[in-house]
Every structure is written in structure tokens, then in C-alpha cells.
Design goal:
Layout (H helix, E strand, L loop, with lengths): L9 H7 L10 H10 L4 H13 L16 H54 L19 H20 L3 H8 L3 E7 L6 E4 L7 E4 L4 H4 L3 E2 L11 E6 L8 E6 L6 E3 L2 E2 L6 E2 L5 E4 L2 E6 L2
Parallel strand pairs: 3-4
Antiparallel strand pairs: 1-2, 1-11, 3-5, 5-6, 6-9, 7-8, 7-10, 10-11
């Protein structure tokens, strides 16, 4: 193939200008090497302009061969360069999107913490440490009787502090949910969730702090929303253990249980062995 470059071809001039040939180098390799070094704004703009003018397929299908003309090789190389540029741009956009989601999650967490702090200050006790209700008959109580009653109360409180009940310990140990992903891009992954009455555990595609540390981050499942749902707990009274719930927070593709789509923002009580489908991922619930 003739590798000479005509002075009237802008594409040929761009691809071969100031690029001396290497021994046994093919024409396509020489073009690829020229495009890889086209880092100046003028060359980049010129390359893009040529791309814009080269609408349609102006080269044969398949890999370059000895039957191709220089112009066909240039168009093929520009097409490869354009595809690589688009793919790289898409990766940068996805990276920035994930970073934005992470920053938004952190900002929302700080906002929730600030709101909780303000609510605690608003609804907190308004009386001082020594502000106690006055008993009208307090002056008529015998001091010795009052002292005995105080000592008995203190002894009872001390026993309750030193000897916590086994029931409370068992309830605390059971306040967790084990999640096994049985299908999807995160298959075989396991998560241990410990939701609290005022702190739910979130699940979604986000890689934010609250998803990674105390939730479920399924970033590889493109069908799951950034914030898809959350796990809640209701503390039991007495000997009753905690009750766990799942809530779909309005995800795009929804959450399914036994083939039926869950209603958004509605509590669904979790039971042992049940499976929730989020996107292309199945989540098996284990409470024991």
C-alpha cells in the first residue's frame, strides 16, 4: 500500500504530520499513534470537525486490510477514537454522579442530625436538676420513716442496675437482620443490619456513608434506585422481641414480594426466610 501523503488531504496531513514512520509499522498503527498524540486544542478541534464532516460509515466493515485506502483508514481510526472518547466521558459522568450521590447522602445525614438535635432541645426537660414537685404533706412526714423509705428505694435501684434481666439482653441480641443476596450482580453477598427505633437502615445503589456502614449498598445493580428502601424496627414490650419492617421509599422500579409489587411508603412486616426483589437482586431475610 502506498503510504505517501498528498498535500490536499486535511485528514492525511493531520494523521501523518510530524510523525516519522517506525520500521515495519503499518499505516493503521501510524494513524493510531498520531491520534494518541493529538493533545493540542487545534488538533483536537480539527479531528472533531473531520468527524462531524464524516457522517456515515466511510470505511468497510471489519479490521483494516491491505485493500483499504488511506482515507478509509483515517475514517476508521477517527471512529475508534470517537468511541473511546465517548466511553471515557461516560465513565467520568458516572463517577461524578456517584460522588454527587455520596455528597448528597452525607449532607442529608447532617441535616437529619441537626433536626434531631433541634427537636431534642425543643422537647427536652425545661426544669432544672433541683426543680422537684413539692408535696403538700412533706412537712408532716416523720424523718426516720422518710429515711427508711429512701434507703429501700436506693437498694432496689442498685439491684436493678447491677442485675440486668436476661430478657433484656436477649432482646438486644436479637435486634438485627441478616440479609443474603441470592441473585443479581451482588449474589452471595451478606449484610448484617442493626436498625434502631430512630435510625433505620437504608438499601440502594448509593455508596454513601449510611449505606456502606449501616445499610446495604448495591452499586452494581443498575435497576435499583439510589435510595430504594429502608429497614425499620419496633422494640417489643416486656418479653416480646423486636418487630422488623421494610418500606419502599418510592423507588423507580419498585420492590416485589412473591411477585406482587409493594405499595410505596407502606410498612411490610418481615418474617423469617421471606425474599424481597429489588431490581435484579433478591434479598433473603434471616431474623433468627
Amino acid at each position: 500500500m502506498d503510504e505517501s501523503v498528498g498535500p490536499d488531504s486535511r485528514a492525511q496531513k493531520i494523521c501523518f504530520e510530524s510523525i516519522p514512520p517506525i520500521e515495519n509499522e503499518t499505516v493503521s498503527s501510524r494513524i493510531e499513534r498520531r491520534l494518541a498524540t493529538a493533545s493540542t486544542p487545534a488538533l483536537i478541534c480539527c479531528n472533531l470537525k473531520i468527524m462531524d464532516e464524516s457522517v456515515g460509515t466511510k470505511f468497510p466493515e471489519g479490521e483494516p486490510s491491505g485493500q483499504w485506502t488511506v482515507e478509509q483508514l483515517v475514517n476508521w481510526s477517527l471512529h475508534q477514537y470517537q468511541q473511546h472518547t465517548v466511553h471515557t466521558a461516560e465513565q467520568h459522568v458516572e463517577s461524578l454522579r456517584l460522588q454527587c450521590d455520596n455528597d448528597c447522602d452525607n449532607a442529608n445525614s447532617l441535616l437529619e442530625m441537626a433536626r434531631d438535635a433541634m427537636a431534642a432541645e425543643t422537647t427536652g426537660p425545661t426544669t432544672g436538676k433541683d426543680d422537684k414537685p413539692i408535696d403538700a404533706d412533706a412537712e408532716n412526714v416523720d424523718p426516720q420513716t422518710a429515711g427508711n423509705a429512701t434507703n429501700a428505694a436506693n437498694a432496689t435501684n442498685a439491684d436493678s442496675v447491677k442485675s440486668p434481666t436476661k430478657t433484656n439482653n436477649d432482646a438486644a441480641n436479637k435486634s438485627k437482620i441478616e440479609i443474603l443476596v441470592t441473585s443479581g450482580p451482588h449474589a452471595s453477598a451478606k449484610f448484617l443490619l442493626r436498625p434502631k427505633s430512630d435510625t433505620p437502615c437504608y438499601v440502594g445503589r448509593s455508596k454513601g456513608k449510611k449505606f456502606v456502614k449501616n445499610g446495604i449498598s448495591l452499586g452494581k445493580d443498575a435497576e435499583i434506585s439510589t435510595t430504594h428502601g429502608k429497614f425499620l424496627v419496633e422494640t417489643g414490650l416486656g418479653n416480646l422481641g423486636p418487630t422488623f419492617y421494610f418500606v419502599d421509599v418510592g423507588s423507580t422500579n419498585g420492590t416485589f414480594l412473591e411477585g406482587e409489587q409493594l405499595e410505596p411508603e407502606k410498612l411490610v412486616r418481615l418474617t423469617e426466610g421471606m425474599e424481597l426483589r429489588l431490581g435484579s437482586s433478591n434479598l433473603k431475610i434471616m431474623l433468627s
